[in-house]
């Protein structure tokens, strides 16, 4: 992390020609090569600067570090000092850069002409219109202005609130479709406070997730993935080697289900019911914790209607599952039940399960001083929308990427409301669905260009600083608001004493300092916060007790299995609620479970497909992921999408990802797929549907060929018993039986006197989240090719998450899904090397299998001979629409058409560290070089290091886990430098 | 063609001269339309190639992991075609086989142009054509040399050697015939033939030297018949890809090369013989003998397919088994079965002497053999790549218009060159025909009595 970079020097830095040189949107003259006639002492060309800031891509609040080269940010990484991210961020966080550099960001303020077209206007004109409209609205009465935005942290939200007050309005919405309402309301009902608890997956021995996809989008995925890896790490519990047991109740497998032991395919919407059935079994078996102060009689009465039999019937699952989940939760030393979705009752049931089993305060913890609620509850948001419908609003402002027209419930009919409002102002980055009706469009800064702060949970205060000069001619949203408030004047206006949002954040932190660390020097506190990304303190757990009144509450669950087919929408792991759709990395990285890119698809079980008359059998060998289009009719209208036939979804359920279907939102998102929010009810993600097979054909695209591993040693797993016995799993491959035990060579092995780089990848820790893939795209300037060319087989990912579906025969002794990162194995006997006629593929003295782009003539022989198929060919010259090229890592060559490329083990990072070490006259230390993928991995599944150093963490990891270690396709004797550690599963008999 | 009239079964020396010189007479409209058509195909191919170089290889249907498909198939196909020419002109010469005399010039011409066509494909398939010279060991300031471990470098030398030797061989054999043509030609043609007769006077010394050089060149060329296609086969056999990694490849490829080459000689010589009325010179006896080679090599090929499959089954290597299962029954399995029918079943008709002496049948069978042999290379190359060691990376090749046009253009280019050469140069060796004329008379008379009726 950067040392000693104060705000002052940052501004100085930002003002230099050097920083401005890389920025389009400034005057063209400054866009030339960096002159450095007068060198700036803060910018050393070639040496990156790091700024700590916070990620704004979801509500988790990961602290991040931005790597800045010559005035432009080129990479985001987790902030190691931050307790939430602990140095990792997810794929969505990585892709925030593509939001910053998005070529479709609004470049200038625009106004809409009478004919509907947009016209550029000057900033003065835009600000004038903005304020004039507010003024006239404020004059015509109170509450004539509505603001729909997204929460941007306490300091900025405060500005928004005060600003709106100065204009005499209270119609304020901080909107988030995947919100917290159910969790907060359930906490209110159960424990009397609307706080969000924190979860400790790592401390549990058993986890039951009632629809919470905590490894994908639910809550704080980076943190939970890290905890989950710890939970699944084999360790001694009560004297025996064990891993945590996890069940995932959801109609769709997902990566969470893929990593769980048990995938309980309940009907969508019955997760809460199953939880009540489990609670019933726990109470009746007497597995509840004795020390809780729960009124047992009331509890028995409360659960009486949910005997496992009727519950399992309604949820469409075997009854043994309910009872065995009850024993998991009730009989483990510590367990955790989590609820997902938008259903209040599921959350209540899950909270109750934790309380009854005595895990409240252990794995589910409420904290003192939890941050105040930032989001507007949906019913309040609905009121504001209704007031717009009713004509009570003269000026509506949509800001901060809230995109209500896209994500607000269909029943609210927000698009019509926004059309109705006399003057709609849209303020944001990439004009989205909500901007289409806007009369005035104002470009605002990306969060990475803005001063912010963030307070995701008790004890974690983060400060967000701008990491570079604005890319476009935009302004900070809250600066505009502050100026506007000052203009409005009056008493309320004086409540905003700050000149701009930077001052406001600074002022908020001075307050914070007086609270958190009154003894320290305020300046020191502030610069310390900038350096470490915030102020972090241990939060006190708050003792909460169950409100017994909850036990008298009557919960309403559906009591019978649905008659219709059900549609279960799920947030796409990368696109989330739709905000990721404008970022091509997130579109092009295959969704880990289906491996589909750039689309909306309908996951359908082969049985269901047969029922609707779809003849195409489930066959893994076809090169498209699906082709038949069905029409799905929901109560809110119908849509068409192509079917992906997969066993990874419950029969009778159609699983459809949320996130596509934007009518605007940039070239990457526009007119692609279906917006599921438009068809879902307000507080549920499932809906009964009717499906009709159409004659239409639409190809779903995947880079994946065969989903069947065909018994090859690609991704391996072993049962817990095998691990305990310390024996390798039985190998069914006959060809391997006659393998000599050690490597056999005709020639003397080559010695690598200095460093020899290698990697250990723990498949057991990998959740398939693809953060490594996104990091690789960002670090190594990988090109985006688009859907059509992925279909052609032109995807450029050096690192891919490979997914295999266990065959039904082996399902009882296999994980639910095989998932692992596959990258260049840097083989000692690299088959790609001797076939290259021109020495473009060569071995370095540090054991790397290098590719020399200048030397490559494009015979592609190397890829033909690569057993792991990790090489990528530049079929065309890669293109980056401006200003996306600013993100390119200057340390990595941009490859031209006709050359082969592949994983380099981030050789630029190795070289940089080696140069540093040489300058300082020392050897490299272990952990000094870390590849982008290893750095990004939330579960630390990837360890990189020096094979010659037997004390390196990488070597130790493979030695300490010897029974789990294997290399891919060993019979080829390519001697890969990557050792994988087998994933561990519970055999069905042992669950 | 079936009613080929065997007018004169006793050609005299002067008839040989007359008939061959008649074939060299200025071409008619049909001839030039044909050449123009071939030239058009060639030009079209050049256009598509230019586009491919300009935009990148992405315009083709090549895909990850099927990195080689039609271009390398074409390369192997054309190199294979070349081999039978050398077999006929060099090996059969050394064995003093009499029936080669009428067809060897045609076969040798085919060799030179087939190699010239084949040589284009390693260039066409390059990602960065403009750096092709990196495979050439030329002195440079960076001391960079090609990697001699790479079969592609071996290829470069094998093809280079082969093109050189076969060109020299062809033009050496042409010397006395060009001198012959020079005597009757006028105008620029006379100049042309004068150049290619290299001052031939027909003296005893020249004849003696000619014979010796020809014999030596035949000796040089003979090992190339075996080595060049073995080297080509090592492009595949030296890798570890299931379906490629097989020790049988070298002999199997050589046999296949002879097979397809002899078939193409048939394809070429039958129309030439018909249209340029060379029936008396290129007799049914010659065709019959060629057909026997085709039949024999077809049997070798069938055996090779069987052994290849047997070894896969016998090894029980799961990787190989999977690849071969896909080869037979996978999404593109029909290519394999078409290939089997073309290469193993249809040539069995040649067991019948009636088929062997019927030019229409021969022509049709030769076309099928060439389709089959093209598919053989395609099945091996594209099919094995598509079903590689990583099941997740399986992806089959589907052609795009660029490769189809360039493949068609390779035929256009070859046929254009061949047609022009055949028109302007003596396509049948007058010298050697005359040497063996008594043999020819006898052979035809004794072996094909039933043809006399015509």
Helices and strands in order, then pairings?
The complex is a heterodimer of chains A (991) and B (454).
Chain A: H1 7-15, H2 17-21, E1 49-54, E2 63-69, E3 72-78, H3 91-94, H4 96-100, E4 110-112, E5 118-120, H5 123-139, E6 145-149, H6 154-166, E7 171-174, H7 181-191, E8 198-199, E9 206-210, H8 221-232, E10 235-237, E11 240-242, E12 245-249, H9 254-259, E13 262-264, H10 271-285, H11 296-303, H12 308-315, H13 319-331, E14 335-339, H14 344-356, E15 364-367, H15 378-389, E16 395-399, H16 404-407, H17 414-420, E17 423-428, E18 440-443, E19 452-457, E20 460-464, H18 477-488, H19 490-493, H20 501-516, H21 522-532, E21 534-536, E22 541-542, E23 565-571, H22 584-588, E24 601-604, H23 606-611, E25 626-634, E26 637-645, E27 653-658, E28 686-700, E29 717-719, H24 720-725, H25 734-737, E30 757-762, H26 771-779, H27 787-791, E31 800-804, E32 818-822, H28 832-835, E33 841-843, E34 849-851, H29 861-865, E35 872-873, E36 900-901, H30 907-919, H31 932-936, E37 942-946, H32 953-960, E38 965-966, E39 978-981, E40 983-985
Parallel strand pairs in A: 6-7, 6-16, 9-12, 9-14, 12-13, 16-17, 17-18, 23-27, 24-26, 29-40, 30-39
Antiparallel strand pairs in A: 1-2, 2-3, 4-5, 4-18, 8-15, 10-11, 15-22, 19-20, 20-21, 23-28, 24-27, 25-26, 25-28, 30-37, 31-32, 33-34, 35-36, 38-39
Helix pairs in contact in A: 5-18, 6-18, 7-14, 10-11, 10-12, 10-13, 10-14, 12-13, 15-17
Chain B: H1 13-23, H2 29-55, H3 70-94, H4 104-124, H5 151-184, H6 187-196, H7 204-237, H8 249-275, H9 284-315, H10 318-329, H11 333-345, H12 353-356, H13 359-386, H14 401-424, H15 430-435, H16 437-447
Helix pairs in contact in B: 2-14, 3-4, 3-7, 3-8, 3-13, 4-5, 4-14, 5-6, 5-7, 7-8, 8-9, 8-13, 10-11, 10-13, 11-13
